[in-house]
Structure formats: structure tokens, C-alpha cells
Write a structure and sequence with these properties.
CATH topology: Neuraminidase
Helix content: under 10%
Radius of gyration: 21 Å
Shape: globular
Number of strands: 31
Distance between the termini: 40 Å
CATH class: Mainly Beta
Strand content: 35-45%
């Protein structure tokens, strides 16, 4: 390389490094109060490429280990799928302070730039054996319909910097809806295994799993469960004995789950958790009954989704859940009693959390969700974010706490499937015993088309005893709609 070219290259590299460091270590202190809580903005979209929607961030996942909480999300949403890059925000002190940035070497908009056109669907995991944080995500080679790879980025310093991507699978196929988890139980025979779920759109959403035993550095061949089930949105969990349980939404209008008892060498045929009854939201939102799954300290699995079975004529959705102690036998569906039945409030997109230091009838649970205060609100919908908790394993729940809103739906990122806050959001209970949700909040745009960013609650939220009794009395329509491909990317 000629000397002048090297000088120019070094200057550009130095500038890129400065920008990356500023993005990584600046803490956004903007707060505003809503519903009696104070929100903290932890990231905003910096990407100004003309092809995506500037100042949009959507679809966060979080994971906590000890006092560290890591979140990842889409930044710079494209209308027809994916985003300009995956953003991250990390707290090492139970959510008191946050550092944030964007993954390197992913898309052409990243610093340094990668080879992919877009990125989507981030999921966060922690591998205790290898002491590594992992963000898995989709990497789009082009616009919607082009091949999509599944990648991971790794951090070995507590989620403060991230390495270059590693391929889970990259073979010219259109994959969707990845999710990762690691076996962090020292006594498990598969301690240190990490598992990533995804589906093959080319094979009509065939469910697939890949396993890593190297802290995410390398990944095994993709394997399908027995019977080659079809669906998407699986969220794998690992029980203390090493059994992996993967709840997912299948193509037949049910929440189902499959398992592995041999460290991912093979995967069993799925069982049905419950049929899905959903009410169409009235606000042209992009929503679907994808599961949000978590596990308590004993290995009891909780899987939540939006469902209308408890409402007269299925007129609105509640957040509901089912539980299992082995991944194959599931309880009757229960309702998160954050509001009275037939209140006319429409709840959707849950982010469910369980305190892993608790279990059984004393399990501490928390759920964050979006809601329309009035269902079937048509063109007059306003969107809020709500929160409810339980300290008796879900027998009783606190009344809804409003965290954010009201938001006009026109303030939200636009997609070909409706206005978007995310196909999922997330809540984690950290070592302080408090719930730390991360969710997209849109404010009235000033000088831009959008102003949608990532927020959390300053200091987290208490997980406290509730007085509203959970219900299992079904009064809805009993309709279980088949899944359509409305949640791609």
C-alpha cells in the first residue's frame, strides 16, 4: 500500500475508533417520568442511511448474570425487514448505569463495516463455563427474500466490547427467528453447552437447533427435532439436569415444545403446550403470539404469550402462561391478572422474567408488555407499556403499572406487517431481585420522522406480592388460528 494511502487509511481508522469509543462509553442520561416511574434512555439510533428509518430502535432482548445485564436490539429499522445494525447496552451494576454501542463487522453500516446488508432478531445469552456473553442474530444478505445467515458476536469482558461475527449457519438459505441459551449449571452433564434455535423459511419454517461446546467460537451442524416440526419463535431453556426445553409457536395454531436430554445430540418430537386464541389488535400493530419463556431455580419452565380465551367473545388479549417441570407435561393455561377480566384492555408482546434464585410456589415472576387501554380502537389507538409481578409462582399478580405512554402508533417504525415495537421485548430479574425491562418507547418526533429508542426503568422495578388472583376459567371463542408468515425478520 502506498504511504499516502496508508496515512489516509490510518486517519479513517483512527476516526472510526474514536466514534466507536464515543458510542460505546457515553451514557445517555435523558429521563422522563410516566406512570410514577422514571425511564432512562439507554440507546438511540445513529444511522442516517436513506434506506432505513432513522431514529428507530425495536425488538430488545436482555439477559442477566449476577449484577450484569446485557441488552441487544435492532437499530435503524428497514420497512421490509431487518435493521442497519444490532445495538447493545450493558449495565454492570444492576441497571444503575449503562454503556452502549453497536456490533462491529456486521452490516455495511457498522464500524468497521461488515459484508451484510441488514441485521435482525438479536438474542442474548451468557456462558458461565467459558465466561463469555453471546448475542445471536440474523444477517441478511439483501432485501426481504434474500438468503439470511445466523451469526453470533461474543464478548469476554462483561459485554463492554464485542468481537467479529461467528457463523452458526451460513449456506445460502433464508433462516429466521433465532434464539440462544447456555447451560450454566455446574452440576449439569452438559455444562458449557450453548444452543441456538432458528427456523428454515425455505423448508416451510422447519425448526432447527445448533450446539456449541466452545463458548460460541464454533457451532455444530443444524439438527431438526423428530418429526421435523414447523414453526418459529422458539426460546430454548436449560433445566438444572441439562435437559433443554424449547417452546415455540408452530404452524398449526398452538404453542408447542420439544426437548433434548443428551446435550443436543438429538431432539425429541414436540408436544402441545396449548392452542392459541388471539384477538386481532385494533391499531395496525405488528404483533403475534410468539412465546416468551423463562425458568425458575428448580427447572420449572414458564412460557407466556398473548391470548384472548379469558375474555368474552375473545374481544381482547391477555398475557397468559403455562408451566412445566419436565418440558413434556404442561399445566392448564393461566391468566396474568394485571387487569380485571373484560376490562376492555388489549395486552400483547410480553417479556416474561423469573428470578432463578426462587422456585415453586415462592417463585418471583415479572412481566412487561404493551397494551391498548381500549381494544378495537381503530385509528384512535394509543399505546402504553405495562408491568405486573408475582411472588407466589403466579397465583396472584399486582395490578398493572404503567411504565410508558401514551404513544401514537404513527410514531412507531413502519413495516410491511404493521407498526413495530418488536416481535418480542424482554425483562430480566438481576441479582438485586428487581426486574429490569428494556423496551422501545416512541416520543413525538421533532424535526425527524421518528423518535423511537431503547429505554429501561431507572433502578429497576420491585417484584412484590399481588392481590389479583390468576384465572383458569376460559370464556373465549376457542379459535386457534394457523400461523402465517407475518413475523419474518
Amino acid at each position: 500500500m502506498p504511504v499516502l494511502s496508508r496515512i489516509k487509511w490510518r486517519s479513517r481508522a483512527a476516526l472510526a475508533l474514536v466514534i466507536a469509543l464515543l458510542l460505546t462509553f457515553s451514557t445517555t442520561a435523558l429521563t422522563f417520568a410516566s406512570g410514577g416511574v422514571t425511564l432512562l434512555k439507554i440507546s438511540s439510533d445513529p444511522y442516517t442511511n436513506s434506506t432505513s428509518q432513522h431514529k428507530t430502535q425495536v425488538e430488545p432482548d436482555t439477559y442477566s448474570n449476577g449484577s450484569t445485564i446485557v441488552s441487544a436490539f435492532q437499530s435503524g429499522r428497514f420497512t421490509d425487514g431487518g435493521s442497519s445494525n444490532i445495538g447493545w447496552a450493558t449495565s454492570g451494576d444492576n441497571g444503575t448505569t449503562w454503556k452502549h454501542g453497536f456490533l462491529p463487522d456486521t452490516t455495511v453500516y457498522a464500524t468497521p463495516p461488515g459484508k451484510y446488508a441488514r441485521a435482525s432478531d438479536p438474542s442474548v445469552a451468557y456462558d458461565a463455563k467459558h465466561k463469555v456473553w453471546i448475542i445471536s442474530y440474523l444477517a441478511l444478505t439483501g432485501a426481504e427474500g434474500a438468503p439470511v445467515d445466523v451469526l453470533v458476536s461474543r464478548s469476554t469482558n462483561g459485554g463492554l466490547t464485542w468481537g467479529n461475527p461467528v457463523a452458526v449457519v451460513s449456506n445460502g438459505v433464508f433462516y429466521d427467528k433465532n434464539w440462544s441459551v447456555c447451560d450454566d449449571t455446574v452440576g449439569s452433564p452438559f455444562y458449557g453447552n450453548c444452543y441456538t434455535e432458528f427456523d428454515s423459511v425455505n423448508l416451510n419454517d422447519q425448526e432447527l437447533m445448533s450446539t456449541s461446546t466452545t463458548g460460541g467460537k464454533t457451532w455444530g451442524a443444524a439438527k431438526s427435532p423428530s418429526g421435523t416440526p414447523q414453526g418459529l419463535g422458539g426460546q430454548p431453556l436449560v433445566r438444572p439436569n441439562g435437559t433443554v426445553v424449547v417452546p415455540f409457536e408452530d404452524l398449526n395454531g398452538t404453542i408447542s415444545a420439544f426437548t433434548s436430554t443428551n446435550g443436543g445430540s438429538s431432539w425429541n418430537a414436540p408436544v402441545t403446550v396449548a392452542t392459541i386464541d388471539t384477538a386481532n389488535d385494533g391499531g395496525s400493530m405488528r404483533t403475534s403470539p410468539l412465546p416468551s419463556a423463562e425458568i425458575d431455580g428448580s427447572g420449572k419452565v414458564y412460557v407466556a404469550w398473548q391470548d384472548c380465551r379469558f375474555e368474552k367473545n375473545c374481544s381482547a388479549n391477555d398475557i397468559v402462561y403455562s408451566t412445566s417441570s419436565d418440558g413434556t407435561h404442561w399445566s392448564a393455561v393461566q391468566r396474568v391478572a394485571s387487569d380485571p377480566v373484560n376490562s376492555g384492555i388489549d395486552h400483547f408482546i410480553p417479556g416474561f422474567a423469573v428470578d432463578k434464585s426462587t422456585s415453586g410456589s415462592s417463585a418471583h415472576l415479572a412481566v412487561t408488555y404493551y397494551y391498548f387501554p381500549i381494544a378495537n380502537c381503530g385509528s384512535n389507538c394509543t399505546l402504553d407499556v405495562g408491568y405486573s409481578s408475582s411472588t407466589d409462582g403466579g397465583a396472584h399478580w399486582t395490578a398493572n403499572t404503567q411504565l410508558a405512554g401514551p404513544m401514537q402508533t404513527t410514531w412507531l417504525a413502519n413495516t410491511t406487517q404493521g407498526r413495530m415495537v418488536g416481535d418480542y421485548i424482554s425483562t430480566s430479574i438481576s441479582s438485586d431481585g428487581r426486574a429490569h425491562p428494556v423496551f422501545a418507547v416512541a416520543k413525538k418526533p421533532l424535526g425527524t420522522t421518528f423518535n423511537e429508542a431503547m429505554y429501561t426503568v431507572t433502578g429497576g422495578l420491585p417484584v412484590i406480592v399481588g392481590t389479583n388472583t390468576s384465572s383458569t376459567v376460559v370464556v373465549g371463542s376457542g379459535h386457534a388460528p394457523a400461523l402465517s408468515r407475518h413475523t419474518a425478520l
